[in-house]
Amino acid sequence: MAPKRAPAAEDFSKLTVAELKERLTALGSSTSGAKGVLVDRLKALTEAKASAKAKPEAKARGKAKAKAKEEAEEEEAPPAPKRGAKAKAKAEAEPTKRAAPKAKAEAEEPPAKRAKAAAASPAKGSKRNADGDVKTSQQEEEPEDNATISGPSEVFYEDGVFSAEYAKSNRSKCTKCKKPIEMGTMRIGKSQQSDKFDGMYTAWQHFECLVKGGVLPKSTQIIAGYGSLKGADQDLIASKVPSEAAGGAAESEELKAQSKKLHEIMDVLNQLSDKQHKEMLELNNLPSQKFGDKAASKVEMIADGILFGAPQPCEVCEGALILSGEGYRCRGWVSEFLKCTFKTQTPSREVWELSEAAKSAGGGKLKKMKLKTGDRIFYGELRDDDEIAAAASSQKRPAFLGHTFVVLERGDTLSKEELEEMIKKNGGSIADNITKVAYCVISHGGVVEKEEEEDEDHEGVAKATKLQVCGVGENFVTESIEAGEMMDLAPYILWGEPPRRKQVAEGQTSRFIEKMGVNMDADVGEEIAQQAHVLVDKSKKRVYSEMLTRTDVATGANSFYTMHLLESDDASSRKYWVFRKWGRIGVSQGGTKLQEFPSLQSAINDFSKQFYDKTGNQYSEASSSFVVKTGKFVRIELEHKALGKKKAEGADGDQGGQQGGGNDQPLGKLSKSQIEKGDAVLDKVEATINDSSLSAAKQLATCQALSAEFYTMIPHNFGAKKPPVINNTELLGAEKALLQFYLRMGFEEMGGEEEEKLTPIQGVMELPVPATLHESAHMVCSVKDIKSCVTKGTTMHKKKAGKPQKPMTPDLYGSILLYTSNAIYKQLNKALRDEDRTTVEKYFPSLRFLFE
User: Fold this and answer.
1) 203 forms bridges with which residues in the sheet?
2) Domain 512-656+663-744 coded CATH 3.20.20.370
3) Which of 443, 505, 566, 841 is a good FRET partner for 707, with 20 to 30 A between their CA atoms?
4) Domain 404-495's class?
């Protein structure tokens, strides 16, 4: 019999959008998305359904075939030999013999005691459940994600950067329930500082999960994109979030009418492919990709243009204005170093131009519209992110806000009900079952203490351990409430490992290990640091270690990117690694990656690729003709002893000592040429400040761009704060003094064969610290110079310039200024190089004060 021919696959692309949605609805699937998305979804569901139907049929055929084979084999097989009566009797007697001791013990034990023991200890193969009841292994386990969550006693309304939109794909996950957010589903997000990179990210949630968590926006006006939602979804949010709209109900209805028109246009646009969407955006001089995290979707932007007109370029930088939240934001750059921050709700517009595909979509519905320009109604105001962040950080938050807990049985002294009430009163949520959603489980010490007759963990402990959810004692709850903030879990652990808390704290960015004349970041790890070093090619005067930076005073970014190509110390069996580290200068924010390569060339290829991706420059041209590219990282030149005249430390393979950035330089000691580049930028800042022909706005914009360039060239540690704009003489003077200090410090590391013969200055640090700058320097310079430096030092002291690690007096600041000025530098430098070491001794008091 000839095999049946498989039916031809249905061509779903021939169906209309309405037909596609009807078929998907029948299958119980989402109907959101463009036509191409609907086609792919229907095809996948149809194939899955056909596959599921085919499996039982195939299984039945397989069973029938196996049964026929088994019957045939039984007919041919000889009968099994019979066991003897003696063997059979022995086999039947063995179970009785094994059970005898247990029966004897039970017979000797009093009935009352046996009953008590049976009630107290679970039977073999059983466990206690979360309430302490015995549950046999035959009972069906609850699904891992099946938990009912009850929110805090009171809703906490907070300020912040909130967004509302329909999910653009299926990739995002709800940060509350950990489940995917289906494409087209309304989601609410809050912008939060990332611990993985220098910047912010949006933590999305299902709206239902947001409500259950008890943390809501303080008003609908601060939810960017609220006005772009469908009317029903606006009503849903407004039922839970307060409204502060000045226009009241009338404005709300007007906004809903506008939203209805936009979504009617979007329904027609969804019949077009993604490629056709991009073509229409480009036709109207708008970008077709890389809009940013908070920007509207392509379909939303096209619908906005059709109804109100195409937004014209930014009036500041000529960049494209993109619909984003409650207005339009520029995606351009003022300079290679400064991102444009222009934003508006009323951009200049031109009538939208429809593509041929759009004209025919939806039966020509868009073509029939009379297109014109107009102003869009926005529900909220455009606010700066740093302004919102400052308002949000000033709010006092409950200790357990945003976290979900499970109380297992009870605490050591408090009941389950008491603990749950305390948690909910302090902003926490309670789950009735242990799932991955739980931050931790609160219980008592008894759950981890096994009885003699128990050979398994408490069921709740076992489940939590499997899900990697730790358990803590009740003191965690009481002490967190007393402190007014959630305590670290580690001191309260009953079982498991505490989750890593995503905290971004200020601190030292890097510690370096000097090895073979090159500083290697200590985060390569102790094992690698002991067996490898940074590769140096002396023939090309190249050190395979790069420090890249990018600072933007507009957005507040102050990023670094470190790269090392490492070579093993053992020359007989070479190994190679590429190490990368990134984050924000002076903040525990970022990450690292170490990757091993089979050969030197493959490691160099990867190192070069990473360098190009980050800077837009070929690595082979890095030192000679580096060109700054807009929005990319910039290469920073550092000093490396491996390329100097002096013998490098650790040249025999020994590991040098750990050190910080070097002379308060957070990313390593800058080269002389790098410092001179920064000084040239400050000269431009000075010229801008003194140029009276510039308007205030133009002067500020220029100073912003130059400040970003300067901080990129000369890395600064601002911690989590936004880099300040250098637009006044006080800041300018402090930065110039800092550069002079960087440039002229380091006389203790003088190079050259003749200078190496000189005896280093000794005994300076044994001297008592002079009380004032005058006491330390009146023998080597004029009183006028001393007074001038103390006056300038007073200004620096008030501003805490340089963020000193310990208190700095005006006189101490003055000592730095005195050294970096021409008052004593020339004479001191000469004395340091004089073979007669006594000539430098008169400078010892001023040097002692300077080193302090």
Assistant:
1) 190
2) no
3) 505
4) alpha beta
What's the chain's Rg over C-alpha atoms? 36
CATH superfamily of 152-245+385-393: Zinc finger, PARP-type (3.30.1740.10)
One DSSP character per residue, 546-570 reads EEEEEEETTTTEEEEEEEEEEEES-
What are 709's strand-pairing partners?
none
Quote the pTM value. Answer: 0.63
> Closest by alpha carbon to 724, among 574, 558, 571?
558
Nearest Cα neighbor of 548 from 500, 581, 519 is 581
Which residue in 566, 572, 565 sits closest to 527, CA to CA? 566
Q: For 362-372, how does the pLDDT look when each residue is reduced to its tens digit (9 = 90+)?
A: 999 999 999 99
CA distance 155 to 177: 18
How sure is the predictor about 53, in pLDDT bands with cuts at 50, 70 and 90? low
d(CA 763, CA 766): 5
Neighbours of 829 (CB within 10 A): 13
Query: In 7-161, where do the E strands start and end?
Result: 126-128, 134-136, 149-150, 156-158
> Residue 512: what are its φ and ψ, rounded to 5°?
-115, 150
* CB contact at 8 A, 320 and 342: no
Residue type present at position 769 = V
- CA dihedral over 99, 105, 108, 114, signed as positive or negative: negative
Residue 450 confidence (pLDDT)? 66
What whole-number distance in Å separates Cα of residue 12 and Cα of residue 65?
Answer: 37
Question: In whole angstroms, what is the distance from residue 708 CA to residue 557 CA?
Answer: 10
DSSP 536: E
